[in-house]
Amino acid sequence: MSHQLTLDQIRRAPKVLLHDHLDGGLRPATVVELADAAGYTRLPTRDPAELGAWFEAAADSGSLERYLETFSHTVGVMQTREALTRVAAECAEDLAADGVVYAEVRFAPEQHLEAGLLLEEVIEAVLEGFRVGQERAAAHGRSIRVGTLLTAMRHAARSQEIAELAVRYRDVGVVGFDIAGAEAGHPPTRHLDAFEYLRRENAHFTIHAGEAFGLPSIWEALQWCGADRLGHGVRIVDDIEVSDGKARLGRLAAYVRDKRVPLEMCPSSNIQTGAAASIEEHPIGLLRDLRFRVTVNTDNRLQSGTTLSAEFAKLAEAFGYGWDDLEWFSVNAMKSAFLPFDERLALINGQIKPGFARLKWATE
Ligand SMILES: O=c1[nH]cnc2c1ncn2[C@H]1C[C@H](O)[C@@H](CO)O1
Ligand SMILES: [Zn+2]
Questions:
Q1: Span 90-121, pLDDT tens digits
Q2: From the candidates 124, 211, 264, 327, which is the catalytic residue?
Q3: Could you tell me if 223 and 217 are in contact, meaning their C-beta atoms sit under 8 angstroms apart?
Q4: Residues of the chain with pLDDT under 50
């Protein structure tokens, strides 16, 4: 039974993706075409293959700050309605082609105002793109549902405004809110007003925390801000001591596990930013063994040259994961989605479990 799963097999599994940035998932060829259309001249190369390699190499910096610098080019070419709609449509199509059946994709509307769009126009262009992409995928026999998360940048001061938009658009495709950007020096409590507002509105949010910065950031995100999920959260391992094969959880780690706080882990991204040393040493192995509510994600497919299937393939190789593990991660992710409970259940029982059952049966 314990044969190594291939990338091709994994692509056929019904997967769930909770942490994927719209401006970190463009096709390299699209970046080049959009740059040409907009007269954007700062790309390091106009050759799509070279550009893809450039993004990966530049993001492979060992520092979150330098990793984030690569976004100036993707954000730079995503300043018109047409560009935003195209990028969102291709995102939905690419995820569907990779076998993702439910995705939450995030972006920061405030970064797309350089050519004069209003925040509302940015959001509507992206929602339209996801609608088009889902339709195109369905026409190719691929079912995908995409929910949108609105991100506010943690170094900026627009989180309240963006949180209000997340609530305003919640019945038409926006399912939650997030903060992202450089973590050190920008604690989530700076945006407490926005989080308190969202809680009063019964809205959902996740916070990038415990990626470049350690336990205090995770503690603030959960206990001050009230985050439903943690973006990354890898540093929670700093509160776990392993000796003689036994793990001892500190109070924060115990809280995260006891409360079933979903961890949106992004293995390849963590290696590029220095949050983890290698796939083999990635905390996901320990956290999965300890039954934290771990999910597997891409973060930025362009900067990491990855797909959700490729992330699972790397984990399968490093930790010997098989279908049961992949199903566990997928059900974990679906349980943690910002969708109504009945819709989550319908996806678990209608698509994820039957899909894995078919794959297990076919490869027995
Ligand atoms: O992993 C990340 N940590 C913090 N910020 C990130 C990460 N990946 C992308 N971002 C930033 C850069 C994007 O421009 C922004 C919105 O998607 O979010
Ligand atoms: Zn992220």
A1: 999 999 999 999 999 999 999 999 999 999 99
A2: 211
A3: no
A4: 1
148: Cα separation from own chain's centroid: 11
The rounded Å distance from CA 324 to ligand 2 centre is 26
On whether the pTM is more than 0.90, the answer is yes
> What is the rounded end-to-end Cα distance, in angstroms, of the chain?
7
Q: Are 295 and 263 in contact (CB under 8 A)?
A: yes
Query: What are the sequence ranges of the domains in the chain?
Result: 15-363
Rounded-to-integer distance, Cα 323 and Cα 74, Å: 35
Please choose, from the candidates 258, 172, 189, 257, the residue with its C-alpha nearest in 3D space to the C-alpha of residue 227. 189
CA of 82 to the centre of ligand 1 (A): 22
Q: Which ligand is nearest to the CA of 105?
A: 1
Does 21 carry a binding-site annotation?
A: yes
Burial of 306 (0-12, 13-18, 19+ CB in 10 A): buried
Q: Does 208 count as an annotated binding residue? A: yes
Ligand (nearest to CA of 304): 1
| Each residue's pLDDT tens digit, 236-253 | 999 999 999 999 999 999
**Annotation says 69 is catalytic:** no
Identify which of 55, 60, 68 to mutate to test ligand 1's pocket (most ligand atoms within 8 A of the CB).
Answer: 68
How do strand 240-243 and strand 246-249 relate by DSSP bridges? antiparallel
Helix (H) or strand (E) holding 333: helix 323-336
> Closest residue (by CA) to atom 5 of ligand 1?
181
Placement of tokens 């993707």 in the chain: 74
User: Is 299 within any annotated ligand binding site?
Assistant: yes
Tell me the C-alpha distance between 150 and 166, whole Å: 6
Query: For atom 9 of ligand 1, which residue has the closest CA?
Result: 21
296 phi/psi in degrees, rounded to 5: -110, 135
Comparing C-alpha atoms, which of 187, 276, 186, 247 is closest to residue 223? 187
For residue 204, give the DSSP letter. -
Within its chain, how far is the Cα of 263 from the centroid? Answer: 11
Look at residue 297 and give its three-state secondary structure.
coil
**ipTM value > 0.85:** yes
Residue 143 phi, psi (nearest 5)? -100, 120
What CATH number was assigned to the domain covering residues 15-363? 3.20.20.140
